[in-house]
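Case study.
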Amino acid sequence: MKINKEEQPNLQKTLVSIALGTLIGLGTYGFCLHFDIEIIGWNLGLLFAPLAAGYSETYIAKKLVGKDVGAISALILFIVTVVYGFIIDNPTLGYNLITLASIIIILQAAAPTVTNYFGMVILLGIISKLIDFIKRISDKCYTKLFKRAKKNNEIIDVIKIFNESESNELLNSQNFYYFTPNTINLEYENIGYFYATKVMDKNTAILGISSSEIKKKRLNDLKTGKDECLIKLANEIKSKNGNGVIDLEIEYFLTGFQASEFQIVAQGMGIRVKE
Amino acid sequence: MILTSSNTLENKKIIEYKGLVTGEALIGDNIYKDLFSGVRDVVGGRTSKYEDEIKKTRDIALESMREKAEQLNANAIIGLKISYDNLGGTMGNTILITAYGTAINYE
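After joint prediction, the assembly is written out as follows.
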């Protein structure tokens, strides 16, 4: 990691604020442990130490650096309190399912994205690879047993780069005027309000594709969907003898059961521009 | 190139409407940036990262839109609209930023 010379004093100040935050957090935890401040057996230090660390770090960092530095000390204190309070200082801890579930819940609270990513992507990925492996073995057995080759229907998914200029030409070569302003300097008559929708799968093909590829594919899908939606809107207006739309709005949102689909809506006032 | 959200350009005459120009960009799930977000959400400390990310993404969308306007030989974009839509994702942080407007020529 390269650090700019200009950033160096800031880095020192950042480290100072993290260290001070951690110290304050440790002090709070020590105080709570020494005076046994607890409710129903729960030492309140577990709650207050990370909070004190995070708040003081953020406060100090804002004074020194001018912005918050990420509440790193809260994280450190969280780990310290969990390791000490739940594992070292816990005589009831045993090797059982409840301990395992508690660890998962603690991890989930501290690092929801990582834990969810692990559960949803890595575990599911391993399962899908396993199923794939079993399927390949069974396919081989099938071919050997029946001396028949199965049709190879493997799909290679290559994500193309979306051609922006082609899309731009396509949209603006429809013999149709798209206007985003709600008034224009041309003579026209109103035809009425029009909208067009395009529903598409959310495409949660997580398995086998990395996150950045999903992002690219999603964005490509959205761009193509938007073009289709706009052309649909143009055709709709053309069918009512219009040749343009003013106050055009394009909206994207999630819909369907458990937000399983994307919906794109293009809407506006259909007009006929007098040539 | 002039970008404006208004319908007209003050003291300038619109000679020609060139067409619709759009630009889109996505902020994806970034697990590295979201590491340990649970604890840090409570005490603050993650917001500025997202602010930077949103700014960068908006710039990408605007730049893509501007390039398309140049392709149409326009010298301004009017009726500019920028929208931010949340498209879900692992932690509900996949955000689509779209910028669109009408490319014009003025004198």
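Observations recorded in class. The beta strands of chain B are 2-3, 14-27, 76-86, 95-106. Residues 2-106 of chain B form a domain with the Translation Initiation Factor IF3 fold (CATH 3.30.110.70). We will return to this complex in the next lecture.
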